[in-house]
């Protein structure tokens, strides 16, 4: 499972936006968002760059955790 530090997430809408952005690339991706910690965990066949680009395209700053 890949883990990313994402800043700017603050609510359920943010969780949905990030989750949907990743699942648009791979429908079966498992996405776990920890709002309090600012962490996104992804289990998918995607590489880290693809995931980070999807999150950035939603307007959030992201880095490997």
Automatic annotation (TrEMBL):
Pfam families in UniProt: HMA
Molecular function GO labels: metal ion binding
UniProt keywords, alphabetically: Metal-binding
Segments crossing the lipid bilayer: none
Residue ranges of every copy of the HMA domain listed in the record: 1-63
Keyword Metal-binding attached: yes
InterPro entries with a match to the protein in the record: Heavy-metal-associated_CS, HMA_dom, HMA_dom_sf
Listed name of the protein: Heavy-metal-associated domain-containing protein
Organism per entry: Pseudomonas chaetocerotis
């Amino acid at each position: 499972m890949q883990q990313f530090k994402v800043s700017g997430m603050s609510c359920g809408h943010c969780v949905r936006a990030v989750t949907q952005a990743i699942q648009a690339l791979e429908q079966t991706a498992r996405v776990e968002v920890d709002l309090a910690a600012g962490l996104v965990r992804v289990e998918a066949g995607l590489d880290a760059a693809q995931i980070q680009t999807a999150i950035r395209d939603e307007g959030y700053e992201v880095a490997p955790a």
